[in-house]
Protein backbone atom coordinates (compact mmCIF):
# COMPACT_ATOMS: atom_id res chain seq x y z
CA UNK A 1 0.00 0.00 0.00
CA UNK A 2 1.50 3.26 -1.09
CA UNK A 3 1.75 6.87 -0.07
CA UNK A 4 3.19 6.50 3.39
CA UNK A 5 6.41 8.19 4.41
CA UNK A 6 7.39 4.86 5.97
CA UNK A 7 7.15 2.92 2.76
CA UNK A 8 10.85 3.40 2.02
CA UNK A 9 11.53 0.49 4.38
CA UNK A 10 10.25 -1.82 1.67
CA UNK A 11 11.81 -0.11 -1.33
CA UNK A 12 15.28 0.33 0.15
CA UNK A 13 15.67 -2.86 2.17
CA UNK A 14 13.45 -5.59 0.76
CA UNK A 15 14.93 -7.18 -2.34
CA UNK A 16 13.43 -9.85 -4.54
CA UNK A 17 15.72 -12.57 -5.75
CA UNK A 18 14.60 -14.22 -8.96
CA UNK A 19 15.99 -17.64 -9.82
CA UNK A 20 17.71 -17.76 -13.22
CA UNK A 21 15.70 -19.09 -16.15
CA UNK A 22 16.40 -22.44 -17.83
CA UNK A 23 17.32 -24.06 -14.55
CA UNK A 24 15.51 -26.87 -12.80
CA UNK A 25 14.42 -25.57 -9.41
CA UNK A 26 14.59 -28.01 -6.50
CA UNK A 27 12.91 -27.37 -3.16
CA UNK A 28 14.12 -29.78 -0.47
CA UNK A 29 12.06 -30.01 2.71
CA UNK A 30 13.46 -31.62 5.84
CA UNK A 31 11.92 -32.40 9.23
CA UNK A 32 13.31 -30.21 12.00
CA UNK A 33 14.30 -32.11 15.17
CA UNK A 34 12.42 -35.13 13.84
CA UNK A 35 14.55 -37.52 15.86
CA UNK A 36 12.94 -36.05 18.96
CA UNK A 37 9.54 -35.75 17.26
CA UNK A 38 9.58 -39.41 16.22
CA UNK A 39 10.46 -40.56 19.75
CA UNK A 40 7.77 -38.36 21.25
CA UNK A 41 5.21 -39.98 18.97
CA UNK A 42 6.69 -43.48 19.30
CA UNK A 43 7.52 -43.97 15.62
CA UNK A 44 8.79 -47.46 14.82
CA UNK A 45 12.45 -47.79 13.88
CA UNK A 46 14.10 -47.61 11.45
CA UNK A 47 11.09 -46.51 9.39
CA UNK A 48 7.62 -46.05 10.70
CA UNK A 49 5.30 -47.09 7.91
CA UNK A 50 2.54 -44.66 8.84
CA UNK A 51 4.99 -41.78 9.11
CA UNK A 52 6.30 -42.57 5.62
CA UNK A 53 2.77 -42.85 4.26
CA UNK A 54 1.94 -39.46 5.76
CA UNK A 55 5.02 -37.94 4.10
CA UNK A 56 3.94 -39.48 0.79
CA UNK A 57 0.41 -38.12 1.22
CA UNK A 58 1.84 -34.62 1.73
CA UNK A 59 3.95 -35.01 -1.41
CA UNK A 60 0.89 -36.13 -3.37
CA UNK A 61 -0.97 -33.01 -2.27
CA UNK A 62 2.01 -30.87 -3.29
CA UNK A 63 1.94 -32.33 -6.81
CA UNK A 64 -1.78 -31.63 -7.11
CA UNK A 65 -1.52 -28.12 -5.72
CA UNK A 66 1.54 -27.03 -7.68
CA UNK A 67 1.38 -28.60 -11.14
CA UNK A 68 4.76 -27.15 -12.12
CA UNK A 69 6.35 -29.75 -9.86
CA UNK A 70 7.32 -32.58 -12.21
CA UNK A 71 9.10 -34.95 -9.84
CA UNK A 72 9.22 -35.65 -6.13
CA UNK A 73 11.46 -37.96 -4.17
CA UNK A 74 11.40 -38.62 -0.46
CA UNK A 75 13.35 -40.47 2.16
CA UNK A 76 12.69 -40.59 5.90
CA UNK A 77 11.62 -37.08 6.94
CA UNK A 78 12.79 -35.22 3.84
CA UNK A 79 11.26 -34.68 0.41
CA UNK A 80 12.64 -33.05 -2.74
CA UNK A 81 10.39 -31.35 -5.27
CA UNK A 82 11.65 -30.64 -8.76
CA UNK A 83 9.95 -27.85 -10.71
CA UNK A 84 10.00 -28.01 -14.48
CA UNK A 85 12.82 -26.13 -16.15
CA UNK A 86 10.60 -23.42 -17.63
CA UNK A 87 8.36 -22.82 -14.62
CA UNK A 88 7.19 -19.26 -14.07
CA UNK A 89 5.78 -20.12 -10.64
CA UNK A 90 5.66 -16.81 -8.74
CA UNK A 91 7.99 -15.38 -11.40
CA UNK A 92 10.71 -17.64 -9.99
CA UNK A 93 10.95 -15.49 -6.84
CA UNK A 94 13.02 -17.48 -4.40
CA UNK A 95 11.39 -16.45 -1.09
CA UNK A 96 7.88 -17.04 -2.41
CA UNK A 97 8.71 -20.48 -3.78
CA UNK A 98 10.57 -21.59 -0.66
CA UNK A 99 8.09 -20.34 1.90
CA UNK A 100 4.93 -21.42 0.08
CA UNK A 101 6.20 -24.94 -0.52
CA UNK A 102 7.37 -25.46 3.06
CA UNK A 103 4.19 -23.93 4.45
CA UNK A 104 1.82 -25.96 2.30
CA UNK A 105 3.68 -29.19 3.03
CA UNK A 106 3.54 -28.48 6.77
CA UNK A 107 -0.14 -27.59 6.63
CA UNK A 108 -1.05 -30.86 4.93
CA UNK A 109 1.17 -32.82 7.34
CA UNK A 110 -0.78 -31.52 10.34
CA UNK A 111 -4.20 -31.78 8.67
CA UNK A 112 -3.65 -35.36 7.54
CA UNK A 113 -1.93 -36.54 10.73
CA UNK A 114 -5.09 -38.05 12.22
CA UNK A 115 -5.72 -40.09 9.03
CA UNK A 116 -2.47 -41.96 9.60
CA UNK A 117 -2.24 -41.79 13.38
CA UNK A 118 -5.86 -42.00 14.55
CA UNK A 119 -4.87 -43.02 18.07
CA UNK A 120 -1.80 -40.86 18.43
CA UNK A 121 -2.49 -37.18 19.03
CA UNK A 122 0.03 -34.57 17.95
CA UNK A 123 1.95 -33.62 21.09
CA UNK A 124 3.80 -30.70 19.55
CA UNK A 125 3.80 -28.90 16.22
CA UNK A 126 5.87 -30.70 13.56
CA UNK A 127 7.85 -28.32 11.39
CA UNK A 128 10.26 -28.42 8.49
CA UNK A 129 13.12 -26.42 7.08
CA UNK A 130 13.65 -25.95 3.39
CA UNK A 131 16.08 -24.75 0.78
CA UNK A 132 15.99 -23.92 -2.91
CA UNK A 133 18.69 -25.02 -5.34
CA UNK A 134 18.98 -24.49 -9.09
CA UNK A 135 20.37 -27.12 -11.44
CA UNK A 136 21.22 -26.00 -14.96
CA UNK A 137 20.64 -29.21 -16.93
CA UNK A 138 19.37 -32.76 -16.99
CA UNK A 139 22.70 -34.27 -15.92
CA UNK A 140 23.00 -32.26 -12.74
CA UNK A 141 19.36 -32.79 -11.79
CA UNK A 142 19.79 -36.54 -12.31
CA UNK A 143 22.90 -36.52 -10.15
CA UNK A 144 21.00 -34.56 -7.51
CA UNK A 145 18.38 -37.30 -7.34
CA UNK A 146 21.06 -40.02 -7.32
CA UNK A 147 22.70 -38.19 -4.41
CA UNK A 148 19.51 -38.23 -2.37
CA UNK A 149 18.99 -41.92 -3.21
CA UNK A 150 22.49 -42.90 -2.08
CA UNK A 151 21.94 -40.93 1.09
CA UNK A 152 18.68 -42.79 1.63
CA UNK A 153 20.47 -46.16 1.62
CA UNK A 154 23.20 -44.91 3.93
CA UNK A 155 20.63 -43.50 6.33
CA UNK A 156 18.75 -46.79 6.36
CA UNK A 157 21.88 -48.85 7.01
CA UNK A 158 22.96 -46.46 9.75
CA UNK A 159 19.55 -46.59 11.35
CA UNK A 160 19.31 -50.40 11.07
CA UNK A 161 22.65 -51.12 12.69
CA UNK A 162 22.79 -48.46 15.35
CA UNK B 1 26.46 -37.65 4.12
CA UNK B 2 29.80 -37.83 2.40
CA UNK B 3 31.80 -39.99 0.06
CA UNK B 4 29.45 -40.20 -2.88
CA UNK B 5 30.49 -39.18 -6.38
CA UNK B 6 27.17 -37.37 -6.57
CA UNK B 7 27.84 -35.13 -3.61
CA UNK B 8 29.20 -32.38 -5.86
CA UNK B 9 25.60 -31.35 -6.50
CA UNK B 10 25.54 -29.90 -3.01
CA UNK B 11 29.01 -28.36 -2.96
CA UNK B 12 28.82 -26.69 -6.36
CA UNK B 13 25.20 -25.59 -6.47
CA UNK B 14 23.83 -25.17 -2.97
CA UNK B 15 24.95 -21.90 -1.40
CA UNK B 16 24.23 -20.62 2.08
CA UNK B 17 23.37 -16.99 2.47
CA UNK B 18 24.15 -15.57 5.88
CA UNK B 19 22.43 -12.37 6.95
CA UNK B 20 24.85 -9.59 7.93
CA UNK B 21 25.56 -9.11 11.64
CA UNK B 22 24.32 -6.10 13.63
CA UNK B 23 21.08 -5.98 11.70
CA UNK B 24 17.60 -6.58 13.05
CA UNK B 25 16.13 -9.51 11.14
CA UNK B 26 12.43 -9.33 10.29
CA UNK B 27 10.43 -12.33 9.10
CA UNK B 28 7.06 -11.31 7.69
CA UNK B 29 4.48 -14.05 7.21
CA UNK B 30 1.42 -13.52 5.06
CA UNK B 31 -1.62 -15.68 4.36
CA UNK B 32 -1.69 -17.01 0.80
CA UNK B 33 -5.05 -16.64 -0.98
CA UNK B 34 -6.65 -15.83 2.37
CA UNK B 35 -9.44 -13.88 0.73
CA UNK B 36 -10.66 -17.16 -0.71
CA UNK B 37 -9.78 -19.07 2.45
CA UNK B 38 -11.75 -16.64 4.64
CA UNK B 39 -14.82 -16.90 2.38
CA UNK B 40 -14.60 -20.67 2.32
CA UNK B 41 -14.62 -20.71 6.11
CA UNK B 42 -17.19 -17.91 6.42
CA UNK B 43 -14.97 -15.47 8.31
CA UNK B 44 -16.80 -12.34 9.46
CA UNK B 45 -15.89 -9.07 7.71
CA UNK B 46 -13.92 -6.94 8.03
CA UNK B 47 -12.16 -8.84 10.81
CA UNK B 48 -13.19 -12.19 12.16
CA UNK B 49 -12.42 -12.14 15.84
CA UNK B 50 -11.65 -15.86 16.08
CA UNK B 51 -9.39 -15.70 13.05
CA UNK B 52 -7.45 -12.84 14.64
CA UNK B 53 -7.24 -14.68 17.95
CA UNK B 54 -5.89 -17.74 16.13
CA UNK B 55 -3.23 -15.59 14.43
CA UNK B 56 -2.30 -14.16 17.84
CA UNK B 57 -2.09 -17.63 19.35
CA UNK B 58 0.33 -18.66 16.59
CA UNK B 59 2.43 -15.58 17.27
CA UNK B 60 2.50 -16.38 20.99
CA UNK B 61 3.77 -19.87 20.21
CA UNK B 62 6.43 -18.39 17.94
CA UNK B 63 7.72 -16.17 20.75
CA UNK B 64 7.90 -19.13 23.13
CA UNK B 65 9.57 -21.41 20.60
CA UNK B 66 12.11 -18.90 19.29
CA UNK B 67 13.25 -16.71 22.20
CA UNK B 68 15.44 -14.59 19.90
CA UNK B 69 12.25 -13.01 18.59
CA UNK B 70 11.87 -9.79 20.58
CA UNK B 71 8.82 -8.25 18.96
CA UNK B 72 5.83 -9.37 16.94
CA UNK B 73 3.17 -7.33 15.21
CA UNK B 74 0.20 -8.62 13.28
CA UNK B 75 -2.62 -7.31 11.16
CA UNK B 76 -5.30 -9.31 9.38
CA UNK B 77 -3.58 -12.42 7.95
CA UNK B 78 0.01 -11.24 8.28
CA UNK B 79 2.49 -11.19 11.14
CA UNK B 80 5.98 -9.69 11.45
CA UNK B 81 8.58 -11.16 13.77
CA UNK B 82 11.61 -9.12 14.75
CA UNK B 83 14.72 -11.00 15.88
CA UNK B 84 17.11 -9.28 18.23
CA UNK B 85 19.98 -7.50 16.56
CA UNK B 86 22.65 -9.93 17.77
CA UNK B 87 20.78 -13.18 17.18
CA UNK B 88 22.85 -16.16 16.08
CA UNK B 89 19.73 -18.20 15.30
CA UNK B 90 20.88 -20.84 12.81
CA UNK B 91 24.02 -18.76 12.27
CA UNK B 92 21.80 -16.17 10.57
CA UNK B 93 21.30 -18.49 7.57
CA UNK B 94 18.51 -16.97 5.54
CA UNK B 95 16.84 -20.11 4.18
CA UNK B 96 16.80 -21.80 7.58
CA UNK B 97 15.30 -18.78 9.33
CA UNK B 98 12.67 -18.17 6.67
CA UNK B 99 11.54 -21.76 6.22
CA UNK B 100 11.51 -22.71 9.92
CA UNK B 101 9.51 -19.65 10.93
CA UNK B 102 6.91 -20.06 8.20
CA UNK B 103 6.65 -23.80 8.80
CA UNK B 104 6.27 -23.52 12.57
CA UNK B 105 3.68 -20.76 12.26
CA UNK B 106 1.68 -22.85 9.77
CA UNK B 107 1.91 -25.94 11.94
CA UNK B 108 0.51 -24.14 14.99
CA UNK B 109 -2.21 -22.51 12.86
CA UNK B 110 -3.54 -25.91 11.76
CA UNK B 111 -3.10 -27.57 15.17
CA UNK B 112 -4.89 -24.76 17.03
CA UNK B 113 -7.63 -24.26 14.44
CA UNK B 114 -10.19 -26.39 16.26
CA UNK B 115 -9.63 -24.41 19.51
CA UNK B 116 -10.90 -21.27 17.80
CA UNK B 117 -13.28 -22.80 15.26
CA UNK B 118 -14.72 -25.85 17.05
CA UNK B 119 -17.68 -26.08 14.67
CA UNK B 120 -15.89 -25.15 11.48
CA UNK B 121 -13.69 -27.86 10.01
CA UNK B 122 -10.73 -26.93 7.87
CA UNK B 123 -11.84 -27.38 4.30
CA UNK B 124 -8.43 -26.94 2.74
CA UNK B 125 -4.90 -26.45 4.01
CA UNK B 126 -4.14 -22.86 5.02
CA UNK B 127 -0.67 -21.75 4.01
CA UNK B 128 1.53 -18.69 4.21
CA UNK B 129 4.33 -17.07 2.31
CA UNK B 130 7.21 -15.34 4.00
CA UNK B 131 10.17 -13.09 3.46
CA UNK B 132 13.24 -12.02 5.42
CA UNK B 133 14.43 -8.42 5.56
CA UNK B 134 17.37 -6.88 7.44
CA UNK B 135 17.20 -3.46 9.08
CA UNK B 136 20.48 -1.91 10.18
CA UNK B 137 19.36 0.20 13.14
CA UNK B 138 16.61 1.17 15.53
CA UNK B 139 15.27 3.96 13.32
CA UNK B 140 14.66 1.75 10.33
CA UNK B 141 13.13 -1.04 12.39
CA UNK B 142 10.80 1.48 14.04
CA UNK B 143 9.81 2.82 10.63
CA UNK B 144 9.22 -0.73 9.45
CA UNK B 145 6.73 -1.26 12.26
CA UNK B 146 5.11 2.13 11.61
CA UNK B 147 4.74 1.13 7.96
CA UNK B 148 2.90 -2.06 8.88
CA UNK B 149 0.69 -0.12 11.29
CA UNK B 150 -0.29 2.49 8.70
CA UNK B 151 -1.04 -0.33 6.28
CA UNK B 152 -3.22 -1.95 8.92
CA UNK B 153 -5.40 1.16 9.19
CA UNK B 154 -5.66 1.52 5.42
CA UNK B 155 -6.60 -2.13 5.05
CA UNK B 156 -9.28 -1.78 7.69
CA UNK B 157 -10.77 1.33 6.09
CA UNK B 158 -10.71 -0.30 2.69
CA UNK B 159 -12.36 -3.39 4.03
CA UNK B 160 -14.96 -1.44 5.98
CA UNK B 161 -16.10 0.73 3.10
CA UNK B 162 -15.93 -1.66 0.20
CA UNK C 1 45.56 -11.84 8.96
CA UNK C 2 44.19 -13.39 12.11
CA UNK C 3 44.03 -12.86 15.84
CA UNK C 4 42.67 -9.37 16.04
CA UNK C 5 39.53 -8.53 17.98
CA UNK C 6 38.51 -6.48 14.96
CA UNK C 7 38.59 -9.37 12.57
CA UNK C 8 34.89 -10.09 13.08
CA UNK C 9 34.19 -7.31 10.56
CA UNK C 10 35.32 -9.71 7.84
CA UNK C 11 33.72 -12.89 9.17
CA UNK C 12 30.32 -11.38 9.91
CA UNK C 13 29.88 -8.93 7.05
CA UNK C 14 31.99 -9.99 4.08
CA UNK C 15 30.34 -12.79 2.14
CA UNK C 16 31.70 -14.63 -0.88
CA UNK C 17 29.30 -15.38 -3.67
CA UNK C 18 30.30 -18.37 -5.78
CA UNK C 19 28.80 -18.72 -9.24
CA UNK C 20 26.98 -22.02 -9.77
CA UNK C 21 28.86 -24.81 -11.58
CA UNK C 22 28.02 -25.96 -15.13
CA UNK C 23 27.15 -22.45 -16.19
CA UNK C 24 28.93 -20.36 -18.78
CA UNK C 25 30.15 -17.22 -17.07
CA UNK C 26 30.00 -13.99 -19.07
CA UNK C 27 31.80 -10.82 -18.03
CA UNK C 28 30.59 -7.79 -19.98
CA UNK C 29 32.71 -4.65 -19.83
CA UNK C 30 31.36 -1.29 -20.93
CA UNK C 31 32.99 2.12 -21.28
CA UNK C 32 31.76 4.61 -18.68
CA UNK C 33 30.80 8.04 -20.04
CA UNK C 34 32.52 7.10 -23.31
CA UNK C 35 30.38 9.50 -25.30
CA UNK C 36 32.11 12.30 -23.46
CA UNK C 37 35.46 10.50 -23.53
CA UNK C 38 35.29 9.99 -27.30
CA UNK C 39 34.47 13.66 -27.90
CA UNK C 40 37.26 14.76 -25.61
CA UNK C 41 39.71 12.68 -27.64
CA UNK C 42 38.13 13.53 -30.98
CA UNK C 43 37.18 9.98 -31.96
CA UNK C 44 35.79 9.72 -35.50
CA UNK C 45 32.09 8.93 -35.81
CA UNK C 46 30.39 6.51 -35.89
CA UNK C 47 33.35 4.26 -35.21
CA UNK C 48 36.89 5.42 -34.71
CA UNK C 49 39.09 2.74 -36.20
CA UNK C 50 41.95 3.26 -33.76
CA UNK C 51 39.60 3.18 -30.80
CA UNK C 52 38.16 -0.14 -32.02
CA UNK C 53 41.65 -1.53 -32.63
CA UNK C 54 42.64 -0.54 -29.09
CA UNK C 55 39.54 -2.32 -27.69
CA UNK C 56 40.48 -5.40 -29.73
CA UNK C 57 44.06 -5.25 -28.45
CA UNK C 58 42.76 -5.22 -24.88
CA UNK C 59 40.56 -8.21 -25.62
CA UNK C 60 43.51 -10.08 -27.11
CA UNK C 61 45.50 -9.48 -23.94
CA UNK C 62 42.56 -10.70 -21.86
CA UNK C 63 42.48 -13.99 -23.79
CA UNK C 64 46.22 -14.47 -23.29
CA UNK C 65 46.10 -13.60 -19.61
CA UNK C 66 43.01 -15.63 -18.70
CA UNK C 67 43.04 -18.83 -20.74
CA UNK C 68 39.67 -19.92 -19.34
CA UNK C 69 38.08 -17.27 -21.54
CA UNK C 70 36.95 -19.17 -24.63
CA UNK C 71 35.17 -16.45 -26.58
CA UNK C 72 35.15 -12.67 -26.76
CA UNK C 73 32.88 -10.34 -28.69
CA UNK C 74 33.04 -6.58 -28.82
CA UNK C 75 31.09 -3.67 -30.21
CA UNK C 76 31.85 0.03 -29.84
CA UNK C 77 33.06 0.53 -26.24
CA UNK C 78 31.87 -2.77 -24.80
CA UNK C 79 33.32 -6.29 -24.79
CA UNK C 80 31.89 -9.59 -23.59
CA UNK C 81 34.13 -12.40 -22.34
CA UNK C 82 32.79 -15.93 -22.08
CA UNK C 83 34.50 -18.30 -19.66
CA UNK C 84 34.35 -22.00 -20.36
CA UNK C 85 31.53 -23.84 -18.62
CA UNK C 86 33.79 -25.75 -16.24
CA UNK C 87 36.14 -22.92 -15.28
CA UNK C 88 37.41 -22.91 -11.72
CA UNK C 89 38.90 -19.42 -12.14
CA UNK C 90 39.16 -18.03 -8.59
CA UNK C 91 36.80 -20.80 -7.49
CA UNK C 92 34.06 -19.01 -9.44
CA UNK C 93 33.98 -16.20 -6.87
CA UNK C 94 31.93 -13.43 -8.41
CA UNK C 95 33.67 -10.35 -6.99
CA UNK C 96 37.13 -11.66 -7.87
CA UNK C 97 36.16 -12.51 -11.43
CA UNK C 98 34.36 -9.22 -12.04
CA UNK C 99 36.96 -6.93 -10.51
CA UNK C 100 40.03 -8.66 -11.95
CA UNK C 101 38.62 -8.72 -15.48
CA UNK C 102 37.56 -5.08 -15.45
CA UNK C 103 40.82 -3.98 -13.84
CA UNK C 104 43.06 -5.89 -16.23
CA UNK C 105 41.12 -4.66 -19.25
CA UNK C 106 41.40 -1.06 -18.04
CA UNK C 107 45.09 -1.42 -17.30
CA UNK C 108 45.87 -2.66 -20.81
CA UNK C 109 43.66 0.06 -22.33
CA UNK C 110 45.72 2.80 -20.69
CA UNK C 111 49.09 1.10 -21.30
CA UNK C 112 48.38 0.50 -24.98
CA UNK C 113 46.74 3.87 -25.64
CA UNK C 114 49.86 5.49 -27.02
CA UNK C 115 50.34 2.60 -29.52
CA UNK C 116 47.05 3.50 -31.18
CA UNK C 117 46.93 7.23 -30.48
CA UNK C 118 50.58 8.33 -30.63
CA UNK C 119 49.64 11.98 -31.10
CA UNK C 120 46.65 12.10 -28.81
CA UNK C 121 47.50 12.15 -25.10
CA UNK C 122 45.02 10.78 -22.59
CA UNK C 123 43.23 13.79 -21.16
CA UNK C 124 41.44 11.91 -18.42
CA UNK C 125 41.39 8.36 -17.12
CA UNK C 126 39.21 6.02 -19.20
CA UNK C 127 37.23 3.59 -17.09
CA UNK C 128 34.73 0.82 -17.50
CA UNK C 129 31.90 -0.79 -15.62
CA UNK C 130 31.27 -4.51 -15.67
CA UNK C 131 28.81 -7.19 -14.76
CA UNK C 132 28.83 -10.98 -14.47
CA UNK C 133 26.03 -13.15 -15.80
CA UNK C 134 25.64 -16.95 -15.80
CA UNK C 135 24.11 -18.86 -18.69
CA UNK C 136 23.17 -22.48 -18.04
CA UNK C 137 23.59 -23.98 -21.50
CA UNK C 138 24.76 -23.56 -25.07
CA UNK C 139 21.43 -22.21 -26.32
CA UNK C 140 21.28 -19.35 -23.88
CA UNK C 141 24.93 -18.43 -24.37
CA UNK C 142 24.38 -18.41 -28.15
CA UNK C 143 21.33 -16.18 -27.73
CA UNK C 144 23.35 -13.89 -25.48
CA UNK C 145 25.90 -13.39 -28.26
CA UNK C 146 23.14 -12.93 -30.84
CA UNK C 147 21.62 -10.26 -28.57
CA UNK C 148 24.89 -8.34 -28.44
CA UNK C 149 25.26 -8.64 -32.22
CA UNK C 150 21.78 -7.30 -32.92
CA UNK C 151 22.47 -4.46 -30.52
CA UNK C 152 25.68 -3.73 -32.39
CA UNK C 153 23.80 -3.23 -35.66
CA UNK C 154 21.17 -1.05 -34.00
CA UNK C 155 23.86 1.07 -32.36
CA UNK C 156 25.62 1.54 -35.67
CA UNK C 157 22.44 2.55 -37.48
CA UNK C 158 21.52 4.94 -34.73
CA UNK C 159 24.95 6.46 -34.73
CA UNK C 160 25.05 6.73 -38.54
CA UNK C 161 21.72 8.52 -38.90
CA UNK C 162 21.70 10.76 -35.87
CA UNK D 1 18.21 -1.77 -26.66
CA UNK D 2 14.81 -3.38 -26.97
CA UNK D 3 12.66 -5.33 -29.39
CA UNK D 4 14.88 -8.26 -30.13
CA UNK D 5 13.78 -11.85 -29.57
CA UNK D 6 17.14 -12.40 -27.92
CA UNK D 7 16.64 -9.78 -25.27
CA UNK D 8 15.28 -12.35 -22.81
CA UNK D 9 18.90 -13.23 -22.00
CA UNK D 10 19.11 -9.97 -20.08
CA UNK D 11 15.69 -10.05 -18.45
CA UNK D 12 15.82 -13.66 -17.29
CA UNK D 13 19.47 -14.03 -16.32
CA UNK D 14 20.96 -10.65 -15.45
CA UNK D 15 19.98 -9.54 -11.97
CA UNK D 16 20.83 -6.27 -10.25
CA UNK D 17 21.81 -6.43 -6.64
CA UNK D 18 21.16 -3.23 -4.73
CA UNK D 19 23.01 -2.66 -1.47
CA UNK D 20 20.70 -2.02 1.50
CA UNK D 21 20.13 1.60 2.53
CA UNK D 22 21.51 3.12 5.74
CA UNK D 23 24.69 1.09 5.48
CA UNK D 24 28.18 2.41 4.96
CA UNK D 25 29.51 0.91 1.75
CA UNK D 26 33.19 -0.05 1.69
CA UNK D 27 35.06 -0.85 -1.51
CA UNK D 28 38.42 -2.50 -0.82
CA UNK D 29 40.91 -2.63 -3.68
CA UNK D 30 43.92 -4.92 -3.56
CA UNK D 31 46.88 -5.38 -5.91
CA UNK D 32 46.79 -8.71 -7.72
CA UNK D 33 50.09 -10.62 -7.72
CA UNK D 34 51.81 -7.45 -6.49
CA UNK D 35 54.61 -9.44 -4.88
CA UNK D 36 55.68 -10.43 -8.36
CA UNK D 37 54.85 -7.00 -9.79
CA UNK D 38 56.97 -5.22 -7.15
CA UNK D 39 59.96 -7.49 -7.83
CA UNK D 40 59.62 -7.02 -11.56
CA UNK D 41 59.76 -3.25 -11.07
CA UNK D 42 62.42 -3.42 -8.35
CA UNK D 43 60.33 -1.84 -5.59
CA UNK D 44 62.30 -1.20 -2.39
CA UNK D 45 61.42 -3.34 0.62
CA UNK D 46 59.50 -3.29 2.84
CA UNK D 47 57.80 -0.22 1.43
CA UNK D 48 58.78 1.55 -1.73
CA UNK D 49 58.11 5.22 -1.15
CA UNK D 50 57.26 5.98 -4.77
CA UNK D 51 54.90 3.02 -4.95
CA UNK D 52 53.09 4.25 -1.84
CA UNK D 53 52.93 7.78 -3.19
CA UNK D 54 51.43 6.45 -6.43
CA UNK D 55 48.79 4.54 -4.45
CA UNK D 56 48.00 7.73 -2.52
CA UNK D 57 47.74 9.72 -5.74
CA UNK D 58 45.21 7.19 -7.07
CA UNK D 59 43.22 7.48 -3.84
CA UNK D 60 43.24 11.28 -4.11
CA UNK D 61 41.83 11.03 -7.63
CA UNK D 62 39.16 8.65 -6.40
CA UNK D 63 38.02 11.14 -3.75
CA UNK D 64 37.82 13.92 -6.35
CA UNK D 65 36.00 11.79 -8.88
CA UNK D 66 33.49 10.20 -6.51
CA UNK D 67 32.51 12.80 -3.91
CA UNK D 68 30.31 10.29 -2.05
CA UNK D 69 33.51 8.67 -0.78
CA UNK D 70 34.04 10.18 2.68
CA UNK D 71 37.08 8.29 3.87
CA UNK D 72 39.99 6.36 2.38
CA UNK D 73 42.66 4.30 4.06
CA UNK D 74 45.54 2.50 2.41
CA UNK D 75 48.32 0.14 3.29
CA UNK D 76 50.88 -1.41 0.97
CA UNK D 77 49.01 -2.34 -2.24
CA UNK D 78 45.49 -2.10 -0.90
CA UNK D 79 43.09 0.79 -0.35
CA UNK D 80 39.67 0.98 1.29
CA UNK D 81 37.09 3.56 0.25
CA UNK D 82 34.15 4.33 2.51
CA UNK D 83 31.03 5.80 0.91
CA UNK D 84 28.76 7.93 3.03
CA UNK D 85 25.87 6.10 4.64
CA UNK D 86 23.18 7.72 2.49
CA UNK D 87 24.94 7.54 -0.86
CA UNK D 88 22.75 6.94 -3.89
CA UNK D 89 25.79 6.38 -6.13
CA UNK D 90 24.48 4.31 -9.06
CA UNK D 91 21.40 3.56 -6.98
CA UNK D 92 23.63 1.43 -4.73
CA UNK D 93 23.98 -1.21 -7.46
CA UNK D 94 26.75 -3.51 -6.33
CA UNK D 95 28.30 -4.46 -9.69
CA UNK D 96 28.38 -0.85 -10.88
CA UNK D 97 30.02 0.42 -7.70
CA UNK D 98 32.58 -2.37 -7.56
CA UNK D 99 33.60 -2.34 -11.20
CA UNK D 100 33.71 1.44 -11.63
CA UNK D 101 35.83 1.95 -8.52
CA UNK D 102 38.33 -0.75 -9.39
CA UNK D 103 38.50 0.38 -13.02
CA UNK D 104 39.00 4.04 -12.23
CA UNK D 105 41.65 3.28 -9.63
CA UNK D 106 43.51 1.06 -12.10
CA UNK D 107 43.26 3.65 -14.86
CA UNK D 108 44.79 6.38 -12.70
CA UNK D 109 47.51 3.98 -11.48
CA UNK D 110 48.70 3.34 -15.03
CA UNK D 111 48.30 6.97 -16.18
CA UNK D 112 50.23 8.35 -13.20
CA UNK D 113 52.91 5.65 -13.15
CA UNK D 114 55.44 7.70 -15.11
CA UNK D 115 55.05 10.64 -12.67
CA UNK D 116 56.39 8.48 -9.85
CA UNK D 117 58.63 6.12 -11.79
CA UNK D 118 60.02 8.28 -14.62
CA UNK D 119 62.88 5.88 -15.27
CA UNK D 120 61.06 2.64 -14.73
CA UNK D 121 58.73 1.64 -17.56
CA UNK D 122 55.72 -0.54 -16.85
CA UNK D 123 56.73 -4.05 -17.84
CA UNK D 124 53.28 -5.57 -17.49
CA UNK D 125 49.80 -4.30 -16.72
CA UNK D 126 49.19 -3.78 -12.99
CA UNK D 127 45.72 -4.85 -11.91
CA UNK D 128 43.62 -5.03 -8.78
CA UNK D 129 40.83 -7.08 -7.35
CA UNK D 130 38.04 -5.56 -5.31
CA UNK D 131 35.14 -6.33 -3.06
CA UNK D 132 32.17 -4.46 -1.64
CA UNK D 133 31.09 -4.80 1.99
CA UNK D 134 28.24 -3.09 3.87
CA UNK D 135 28.56 -1.96 7.49
CA UNK D 136 25.34 -1.02 9.27
CA UNK D 137 26.61 1.58 11.74
CA UNK D 138 29.45 3.74 12.94
CA UNK D 139 30.82 1.13 15.35
CA UNK D 140 31.28 -1.54 12.74
CA UNK D 141 32.77 0.86 10.20
CA UNK D 142 35.24 2.07 12.86
CA UNK D 143 36.17 -1.51 13.68
CA UNK D 144 36.62 -2.20 9.98
CA UNK D 145 39.17 0.60 9.75
CA UNK D 146 40.86 -0.56 12.98
CA UNK D 147 41.09 -4.04 11.46
CA UNK D 148 42.86 -2.74 8.37
CA UNK D 149 45.20 -0.67 10.56
CA UNK D 150 46.18 -3.63 12.73
CA UNK D 151 46.76 -5.64 9.60
CA UNK D 152 48.98 -2.85 8.28
CA UNK D 153 51.28 -3.08 11.30
CA UNK D 154 51.41 -6.88 11.11
CA UNK D 155 52.24 -6.73 7.42
CA UNK D 156 55.01 -4.24 8.04
CA UNK D 157 56.53 -6.30 10.84
CA UNK D 158 56.34 -9.44 8.75
CA UNK D 159 57.91 -7.70 5.81
CA UNK D 160 60.65 -6.12 7.95
CA UNK D 161 61.79 -9.33 9.62
CA UNK D 162 61.42 -11.82 6.81
Automatic annotation (TrEMBL), chains A, B, C, D:
Family annotation (Pfam families): Thg1 (PF04446)
Domain of life: Eukaryota
Transmembrane segments: none
Gene3D superfamilies: 3.30.70.3000
Domain named tRNAHis guanylyltransferase catalytic: residues: 6-136
Gene Ontology molecular functions: magnesium ion binding; tRNA guanylyltransferase activity
One GO biological process term: tRNA modification
Signal peptide residue numbers: none
Protein name in the entry: tRNAHis guanylyltransferase catalytic domain-containing protein
Protein species of origin: Hordeum vulgare subsp. vulgare (Domesticated barley)
Amino acid sequence: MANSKYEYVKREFEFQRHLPASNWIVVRIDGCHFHRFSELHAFEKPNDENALRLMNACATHMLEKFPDIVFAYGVSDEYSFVFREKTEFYKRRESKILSLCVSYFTSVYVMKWKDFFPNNDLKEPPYFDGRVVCYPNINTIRDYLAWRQVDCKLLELKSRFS
